[in-house]
Amino acid sequence: MLNLMKLELRKFKIMGYIRSAAIATLIIFGFMMLISYSPKMYGINVFENYSRVFSMIDVFARGTFIIFAAVLLGRFVIDEFNHKTITVLFMYPIKRHKIIAAKLMVVIAFAFLCTVTSMIILSTLYFVINSFAHFVSGELTLTLLLQHAAKLGFHALAASFMALIPLYFGMRKYSVPTTIVSSVIIVLLTCSDSGGFNLNDIIIVPILLAAIGLAVGYMAIRKIDQIDIR
Predict the structure, then answer these.
(1) Full 3-state SS string of 145-213
(2) Does the pLDDT at position 230 exceed 60?
(3) 0.85 cut: is pTM over it?
(4) Distance (Å, rounded) from C-alpha 24 to C-alpha 16?
(5) Does 81 or 54 have the greater pLDDT score?
């Protein structure tokens, strides 16, 4: 399975997506700086404490990489069927479900690692800048850091499986745009922040959506042998 995953990474030149993920992280950081600095000019603190900062980082990182994962699903899976290149893969002496499973595992791993890495980078950069700019007046304690690290890690893991849900809609007509649009809808539903609260804060929501994502991936793997690719 690991060899299949490595082949997928080489085939689709994953480094290009990693560079895009790095750029997206920097853009998120730039936006956070903008919404921190601009209101402060008028004596307003958008981030009244570090809990609010971590909540915003969580929302931005999850939303960004759920959509990134949908792009990967479109490229790794949907496009293969659209362009009939999947027929070549299915000629290999490897079971179909293993090929599809390898593709989905790459997407899950990419979404999880990029989300976690982005969260770490954003948190570190914001802490360093805040030590000079003093956007947030509250103190960052070890207890608070560990609490939010566990929470953000859980959200990142749930989001990586949740990112498979758009595959259900995309595979119906082998449509990449449908896959991406459905991921945007999921992001709007789960990452819309209202006063520091979003649906993802209700613990059953990310668990349920992650389970649905797993079910979608499992059904795609199980039913792949029934698909007529001619």
Answers:
(1) HHHHHHHHHHHHHHHHHHCCHHHHHHHHHCCHHHHHHHHHHHHHHHHCCECCECHHHCCHHHHHHHHHH
(2) no
(3) yes
(4) 12
(5) 54
